[in-house]
# Entry
Amino acid sequence: MTRHTVHQQGVAGTLESSDVQILIDQNSAGGIDINLTSSVEKQYGQQIRKVIMDTLKNLGVTDAKLQVQDQGALDCTIVARTIAAVHRASDSVSDIDWGELEEWNV
Amino acid sequence: MEVHQLRVKKRKTDFKRWSTLLDDAGIRTEKNIETVLGVFEKERCIATGAVFGNVIKCVAVCREYMGGAVVSLLMTNLEKIVFERYNSCYLYTKPNTGESFAKLGYQEIVKLDDQLIFMEKAVNGFSEYLHYISDQAQNNSRQAGLVINANPFTLGHQYLVERASRENNSVYVFVVSEDRSYVPFEDRLHLVKEGVKHLDNVVVLETGPYMVSQTTFPSYFLQEDQDATIVQAQLDATLFKTRIAPVMGITHRYVGQEPFSETTEIYNQQMKKVFGNDLTLIVLERKKISGQAISASLVRDLWRERDLKSIKKLVPEATYSYIEEHIEGVK
Amino acid sequence: MERLRRTMMFVPASNAAMMRDANLYGADSIMFDLEDSISLREKDTSRFLIYQAVKTLDYGNTETLVRVNALNAGGQDDIEAMVRAGIDAIRLPKTETAQDILDVEAIIAQTEKKCGREAGSTKIFAAVEGPLGVLNALDIATASERIIGIALGAEDYVTSMKTRRYPERNSEEIFFARSMIVHAARAAGIAAVDTVFSNVDDMDMLRKETEIIKQLGFDGKSVINPRQISVINSVFTPQQKEIENAENVMAAIEEAEAKGSGVIALNGKMIDKPIVERAQRVLQLAEAAGVWKEGEEIEW
# Structure
């Protein structure tokens, strides 16, 4: 599994309806820390966090801090934006390992 | 809906579109802007926003389109510009719109009455900054705080810090991080540290983006007759009093008197007003050499004239060596 | 029978809301765009977005395509992602020569192998957007087994031709290009799709333009706004008379089969293959438009 390490801030997504904006950066305290703002926090807050955490785990990211603005995004959108933000943060955009992504991304 | 750049400084039609929208929203046009965007519905410009460094300003939306979609589209595009070069994004807005920006991920840093709020979107932002500075808090009674640009660090600055050091248990010197000064931040910070290392109760810190400056401050928010400097000073003072001082246990703020700078005078006045009885403002007279007050601008003038002899009398050793090394100028 | 492609809707791959709702608009084909509608800065994020969406969401019977970037501008990653995601076809922009098709095909084949997708299952749709491509239309249309259709991108084409669009003058400026493309499509046995109509408020002109291309023999038209779909569909919806004739043809065939006769005749005239195909097509279009249903018996 390719371990992605966050070197710099990565941003992906928009503030538009049905989308989610994710900012990811290093976490000096270690571990994963997610700060979430969502219009559907009550019903889906937990689910959104779970999707992000699972995706980070699959990408091999162990330490990161995230600022997430959700506007009612579907799970697949959350996964996509997380993958994109991590690639930008770990500087792997020009070097995407599709086979590796496919291994866990059913 | 489409988003296009408005070339307000080059095209009359774009300037007209921009100023009309701002006018309707009760906002004035600003010179301190880098990129201005317009949201278009068919041929009509229905919203606008501008970027200056890492600050989003001059956001105005046509009344009929005040729903989430337009603002979301506008903010997404403005943020893209900011995040290209910076990690954190700042915003000034009227308190009544603060809620909608909170939904977009902005957190309030400081509020000024009903006039305006200063907000931030960041992963490692203000709370991390507060951790950084509080980690260095000495937990003493009677502690002083100073904010200096130190462009460069002079004997005048040193005098201020020495006085504070003598009169207080601990001193926190905040060096302005914003890099719009002649001497780059890293060098300014270094010279400050060198200039105070003989004092064992002084801690040198960075201000980060949390000391409002004239360049980022949105004077357009104010009524025509209101002085931008006064409101900016109030905002700065409020931030210091309500968010910085408590975390550090600062009881006294030291500033130098500035007989020739109206801006600094206004600042000092506003600080006194805002601090009230909660925080003591100490205004010290400037240190003089041969009857002349030492100021960084004087040093810079002499620097331009390459007058090392005169400079030597006004700055501590480390600063002198730096200037000598960069006598031709700072690249 | 060949699937219907009356409308091919463009969906920018950066728009999460449109991607989510793409299948609700009723287009025959959805074309996710990673090329011209996506800014350089958003190529990578949009690619991941559409990759994840096509993988996860169910687009039903709607055909899914993705317009990829040029191979030297991210196209390779686009193809890798979308073949893996399960896209129906890759749409190649600005196709000029048969070699362009072969270059893309090589990457598709390689990716199919790598990810275990059935070889040949990813189709190709060629978009011709310039004079060279127009002149090479037949070569392009026959360059690969995977090609299912060829489309005209008129905006870039007219710019290269040093003119502009004149929809109000029956689009003479793209008549030749349209002809070449529909000829190439018919000779190669693939679909022909016309260019977008960019004025989303002028439904009358859209209708006129659609009638012209239907007359020329096109299968359908590209769409940039869902509101255009019903207009285009209605132009392709057969008239009652056409439907009746088609029904008669099909009835004649049934009769002939029942009798065991090898020759099919209707009203004394022989019905050969092209007529049958046309009849089937009419009924297919009528059914899709909801104005006809197979095997409806009359209640006595």
